[in-house]
UniProtKB/TrEMBL annotation:
ANK repeat coordinates: 243-275, 273-305, 333-365, 363-395, 393-425, 453-485, 483-515
Transmembrane segments: none
Coiled coil: none
Name of this protein: Uncharacterized protein
Length: 566
């Protein structure tokens, strides 16, 4: 395209042809056909300005594929200053469905000059719909009567209901603010009567549809609803009390304090659904809303929402403290509340609960046992200081802490009087079995009997290959020869070469091995053990030949977890 004149000529040829196939004649025609303004003129010339945007069943009748483009539709509209009102109304609804905010804004800004009779007919229609009589204008010479091209409440507010159902917050706001639009006519204001957009009718939808919008639009959106008559509308329950004040509950859930305040100031029932708003605010940890609701009369003992407070991972300490100050009775739920708090490691909540009467002994001191097993030293200290029994369930707190390797908890419990030898030295046996060397050292240093339950602490450490623990126990008096056959068998069977070497160095009897046992060990992949033992044999360090695994299949040890840590 070399010159402006050639562009104009080709554009006119394409437009006047009324034939879309012309775009395929040449590249220049094709490029021109893609220009929005050219397409708009082409469609207007082909179908007529009053028919090009004709709509039936919410779809364009002509060239519906081209008219999927909002910019093209807007361009066509701008070329027709006085579009047909019916077509404009249909297009307005389509714009809501397609979220065409630009087209919607353009149509809302359109006003038309009508006859006096038409003007009065529209007024009467509005009066009938709203039952509010419009004041009669003062007598003056009127030359122009201006009304909106679009009726935003037509067909029982279909456009607004669509915007709500599609959760189109931006369009909802446009419609709620439409009453503010001032027409851009250059008429003599003193001789012009103007009918502005109506406020959106609040009569044709359920308030359930607006609750989700509050999360995005917040207080300002809610105020727009009230300005448009939400509070005074009662048809189909679209008032502030609709569905048992569901709007207040959703605002409380979402944490919109401003919305909550505004709703209550406008008459929302704070006690609706047995104080649902307070319960849901607690569950979602919105402390300021909880405080506001309680200060305005919410019932602390309403419904059983309070257990939910402790099921979440959020920080609820401020809410709990506030509710306690206002008289919330936790006593009847102390067991479950403590368990939830302990499970989350919340020392602050546990302290608050026990100081306000929670039973630390509930479920056989479950709280202390659970805290010990999970290594929450702060919680353990808090519970013990508030009377928890360290000996509950045969000193299970210490046993669990030792088994899990929580040295700090073990130290505190022992210092608080726990029995280190409870249940046949269970704590040492399981600490040894799991290789918790520091815990083993501490327990032995505090007098636990390393010979309990047939030296099982040592056997458990050997079975699981914890060489450091094995050495420590032997150095502190554990009898490595009390059952040396089974001890060495277990080390070999599990492939713990370092332990096998240590036992051999300590003169454990290795006289019971044969070729069958070697093959068994090889089948398990413990080639290092086999090589080491064969070398011992070849070096003549076994007088009677190696026969280590003769009864390897007869091992019956460690079959019971509670008594047998293996």
């Amino acid at each position: 395209m070399n010159t402006i004149s050639s562009y104009v000529i080709l554009s006119q040829i394409f437009i006047l042809s009324k034939n879309p196939e012309v775009r395929l004649v040449s590249r220049n025609f094709y490029e021109i056909s893609k220009i929005v303004s050219v397409r708009a003129n082409f469609l207007i010339h082909k179908f007529g300005k009053d028919k090009v945007l004709d709509i039936r069943y919410n779809e364009f009748v002509n060239c519906y594929d081209l008219l999927e483009d909002q910019e093209l539709v807007l361009n066509i509209l701008q070329r027709n200053p006085n579009p047909d009102q019916e077509i404009s109304q249909n297009l307005f609804q389509v714009s809501v469905r397609r979220r065409w905010i630009k087209v919607l804004e353009y149509l809302l800004d359109l006003f038309v000059d009508v006859s006096k009779e038409k003007f009065q007919a529209v007024i009467q229609q509005r009066n009938h719909q709203t039952e509010i009589q419009r004041p009669t204008p003062k007598q003056k010479e009127i030359r122009n009567y201006i009304i909106p091209t679009i009726d935003i409440n037509t067909n029982r507010g279909i456009c607004f209901r669509l915007a709500l159902s599609y959760k189109q917050t931006d369009i909802v706001k446009k419609l709620l603010n439409a009453y503010k639009i001032i027409p851009k006519f250059k008429f003599d204001v003193s001789k012009t009567e103007i009918l502005f957009h109506q406020k959106v009718s609040m009569e044709y939808f359920s308030s359930n549809n607006i609750c989700d919008l509050f999360e995005e639009g917040g207080l300002e959106l809610l105020k727009l609803f009230f300005i448009n008559g939400l509070k005074s509308a009662h048809i189909r329950g679209a008032d502030v009390h609709a569905d048992q004040d569901w709007a207040l509950g959703m605002a409380s859930k979402s944490g919109h304090l401003g919305v909550v305040k505004y709703l209550i100031e406008n008459g929302a029932n704070i006690k609706a659904r047995e104080d649902f708003a307070l319960g849901i605010a607690c569950r979602n940890c919105h402390f300021e809303i909880v405080k506001y609701l309680v200060e305005n009369g919410a019932d602390l003992k309403a419904e059983n929402h309070w257990n939910q407070i402790f099921e979440e991972k959020n920080n609820h300490i401020e809410i709990i403290n506030y509710l306690l100050e206002r008289g919330l009775d936790f006593y009847n739920r102390s067991s479950s509340i403590s368990e939830y708090a302990i499970g989350k490691g919340r020392t602050d909540i546990v302290k608050l609960l026990v100081e306000n009467g929670a039973d630390v002994h509930a479920n056989n001191d479950f709280a202390l046992r659970w805290a010990s097993e999970n290594g929450h030293s702060g919680l353990v200290k808090c519970l013990v200081e508030n009377g928890a029994d360290v000996h509950a369930n045969n000193d299970q707190a210490l046993r669990s802490a030792s088994m899990s390797g929580h040295l700090e908890v073990v130290k505190y419990l022992v210092d608080s009087g726990s029995n280190v030898d409870a249940q046949d030295g269970y704590a040492l046996r399981w600490a040894s079995a799991n290789g918790h060397f520091e815990v083993v050292k501490y327990l032995v240093g505090n007098g636990t009997n390393i010979h309990e339950y047939f030296n099982q602490a040592l056997e458990s450490a050997i079975w699981n290959g914890h060489l450091e623990v094995v050495k420590y126990l032997v150095e502190n008096g554990a009898n490595i020869h009390s059952n040396n056959k089974e001890a060495l068998q277990s080390a070999c069977k599990n492939g713990h070469l370092n332990v096998v070497k240590y036992l051999a160095e300590k003169s454990v009897d290795i006289n019971r091995i044969n070729e069958f046992d070697f093959r068994f060990c090889e089948a398990k992949g413990h080639f290092g053990v086999v090589k080491y033992l064969r070398n011992l044999k070849n070096n003549g360090k076994s007088e009677n030949g190696l026969n280590l695994f003769k009864s390897v299949f007869n091992l019956n040890y460690f079959s019971n977890k509670d008594q047998d840590p293996k």
